[in-house]
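ERR on first pass: missing label on line 2. Operator R.T. fixed the label and resubmitted. Corrected input:
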Amino acid sequence: LISSFDDFGPPVHLNILPRAFDSLEMSEESKSSKEEIKGLDDEPDEIQLKLKSQESETYPIDKNIAMMSELIKTMWEGDKEEHEIPLPNVKSSILKKVMDFMKYHHTNPPKEIEKPLKSANMHEVVSEWDANFVEVDQETLFELILAANYMDIKALLDLTCAKVASMIKGKSPEEIRKRFNIQNDFTPEEEEAVRAENKWAEES
Amino acid sequence: LPRFTEMASINDLPDSILEFILYHVSPYRDIKSCSLVCSRWHECCRHVKEKITQLFVDAIVTGPVCFSSSSNCTTDPPVLSSSSTTSNMSRFSHCACMHGSSMYVFGGCTLTHTTFNDLWKINLTSRSRERVVTTGSYPTPKSHAVMIVWNDSLLLFGGWSTPYVYPLHQQGILFDEFHRYDIKLNTWTSFVYSDGPPATAGHSATLHGDVVVIFGGLQKRGDSSGSTNDIYCLDIINEAWFRPRISEIIPAPRYGHSQIKLDDRHVIIISGCGGYNQLHNDIWLLTIPENICAPREVWTWKLLTIEGTNFMPKQVWCNPTCRVADNVVVLARRNESESEGRMGLAQMLFRSGRQNSQRFGVPSAPLAAAVRPAVEQPPPPPPPPPEPVRTNFAGSSSGQSTPSFSKYREESPGHVAGHHRPSVRPNASSNRERRLSMLSKYEDRLRAAMLKEQISKSGVVGAPRLDQKPACSQAVYVLQLQKVLSDGIVTWVPGPSWQGSVVPHPRLLCSLMLGHGELVLCGGKRTEECDCSAAEPWPPILYIYAPRIGPP
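pass 2 clean. output:
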């Protein structure tokens, strides 16, 4: 989860399974020492996890692919016996799209998106597949953002936020409000004051 | 997280995510539009702006920074006036200033002695540039003028026009013109003042409230010209010029220096050139009294102590400078000695010279000239230098009688308690330093050659070739101002590195302005040492910014 704008570093997971197995995690991470750890901790590569949506439908996915989600990764490393991952915040339709994204990008990490956006046309900013992936209606797009945030999938969050930004780029305030159905809660005086604001940021 | 059974809207996104989205939009027009959407967006935009500003300030100090020319961006359809396809924006010694989401560029000149009086407007959102078709009374084509923004107007003063190549020995023309460009009305208006400053070029100015403070420059004096350390102020509202009372110790006259506004009451003057072979390497603080227009109040000058001389550029004149938060960014050619990682020549000489000049309250100017390695020719100052034997060098503020030029002077020129004594033989006291510096240079070369031999003998693979200097690379120098008001100290710190292996070529006489989280560099000409071919692209505008790879 992104808890604050400042905190785009290592994600802070709130109310997730306790990280009681930290030390175990560390050793698991180094594949080189895998030969040393035998027996019950052996991990075959083809494990299938079952992601459970808000509507309690389950979808199978390769464990390695699912690791793109930091949330799933943490939950998995918390309890390797549990192969069903509940995601009560994510609707089925959205979960399916998220899984498509993870499957495509598992071996195909996307390039960093340049900021600020060079263009309002996503096809000029990201790959063809990605641009098409976010050609969805607004509600789906925001659901995807929330899912990406909840499941902590950086690449998906980057892509979906860039898409929204592309929809904002070049528009007037009124157009933005209409597009996203936002209420203008400024008084005329406040609006005038903001319009007159010349300073970029507070001069140091 | 509150969850809705119906589908999400943008209002469901937490602030941190909205801010991340806003982080992608152009920090110019788009951020402004977003600020106006609603109060929540306004607040988020404020955070994003702070973030971007801080990111850039950190990057300019600790690095890395990147650069790009505007052609990199595919943008919204650029707005170009039809004349711009034929007219060229390349120039140097022009004026530039920022107004909202646009940068305005006026005048300037080229190597082929063309001087301009056109006005360009660069749209920082779309990165397009447009030659503005203005109305009103145009200023004369000129370069080395000064232009500042005041409300929705551009105020332009002074300047110089290149002489024609033929007939020979023609002096340039200095201007005392004052013009105002009204942005909303797109009109130039000319103002004539009876009590204004004399024709000046290579001066500098900053705005303090509604008063323009102009310092220095190459000033017209009768039939000749000379560098000055005068301060002229324009009270814009009352349309009146005045000259403040100043303290006893004042900086040597100069042009091509930089004037940086610290706050409404403090100004910093950096280096500059006093005349032929008189490069200054000092930094001064000017303190303005609370009531800027009060006639009796004294404005005080103070020479600042310079720390971190390891990291300073060889000299600062005709170099672009710009203030970024508590730092002054200076672009200069990378010092050769830096690449060898040892004490810079500049620093050695500067240190030794300072002891001599303490009693004058100003470092000696010919010393500063010697700071450049003796083998290099200092570039000629942009306006033709005043010939040293010409008379009428009356002291600017104290009315000192004309000094005798036949006397050989051992001590440094410069200001001693308000007296102005320019040097007859500017290199007189620098001979010793110059010999020392040449010896040092020979020593360095010897050492480098020996080291190189050693390395090639020992067969160390991948050792850097010491004869391969980055001869032609632009370096970013950073002068920190945190201790100016408290301790009278400015500190040079190691500047940021460039991201990537390609570095921009060094430029002189370009403009450098702070945009929104980026520096905008415009125009300029190649330095003499620049070894790039004439065929290489020389983009008129470069943007220097912090790479935004990943979230902040």
